[in-house]
Amino acid sequence: MAISQASGNAGLNPGIYTSSTRPASPADGLVISETDTDSLVVYKGTAWAPVSALTLIKTQTIGSAVSTVTVSDAFSTTYDNYRVIISGGANSADASIALALGATATGYYGGCGFIRYSDAATVFRSDNNAAAWMRAGGGNTNTLSMNLDIIQPFNAKPTLVFGTKVDSGTAGASGAMTGFLNNTTSYTAFTISVDAGTMTGGTVFVYGYAKV
Fold first, then answer.
1. H/E element holding 20?
2. What pLDDT score was predicted for residue 4?
3. Element (H, E) at 8
4. I need a labelling partner for 109 at 20 to 30 A (CA). Which of 33, 59, 132, 160 fits?
């Protein structure tokens, strides 16, 4: 690891590689910079792992006046668990954001308890063998929002989800949701949709949790 002292460029400069040109016999604790994944990676004795527990996998901008958005190549064998965040943009009406995996349109179970800002009422909604997790996020004319952990979507096991639902504005609500998908399909993609209005702008961020 070199130390750069050029004017305006001081700092540590780790070795520069790609994920396919990593050192063949690395020392335990070796840190490199991967140009193809834009991440710092450390060797932990038996395997390489991101320095950060969360690694950004991809981003996708939501279009203009769309009711659905499909994010492809989101899940793979590299990670078991993921976080999906949506921020920015807006929806043309107060709406819940649903999330479905692959082409599966049945078998989603979940529950969402939340408080409405307009009247402070506590409300519970459930999904029973639904076509998607219907309350994975929310949107209105102020913003779109989602903060969802998706557990083992690529593995051939039932997929679990844990998240928060927060809608800004006096007509919105906030709460928490959990659920599962009752099958053992391996997924690489997901689709988000709204139950009213259309989405414009905003970005979908997909992160992977490091395995080691």
1. none
2. 57
3. none
4. 59
**Domains of the chain listed by start with CATH number:** 2-50 (no CATH), 54-209 (2.60.120)
DSSP per residue, 61-93: E--SSBSEEEE-S---TT-SEEEEEEES-EESS
What pLDDT does residue 165 have? Answer: 81
| Alpha-carbon gap, residue 127 to 39, rounded angstroms | 38
Closest among 90, 106, 86, 102 to 164, alpha carbons compared: 86
Q: What is the pLDDT of residue 210?
A: 82
CB atoms within 10 A of CB 101: 26
DSSP code string of 129-185: EESSEEEEEEE-SS-EEEEEEEESSSSSS-EEEEEEEE--STT-EEEEEEEEESS--
Residue 8 phi, psi dihedral angles, 5° rounding: 75, 10
CA–CA separation, 120 vs 173, rounded Å? 9
Residues counted in the chain? 212
Could you tell me whether strands 159-166 and 144-151 are parallel, antiparallel, or unpaired per DSSP bridges?
antiparallel
Tokens of 51: 């320095």
SS3 of 36, please? coil
For residue 38, the number of C-alpha atoms closer than 13 Å in the C-beta half-sphere is: 5
Nearest-angstrom CA–CA distance, 45 and 75: 25
- Whole-number pLDDT of residue 132: 97
Sites in the chain below the pLDDT cut of 70:
1-9, 212
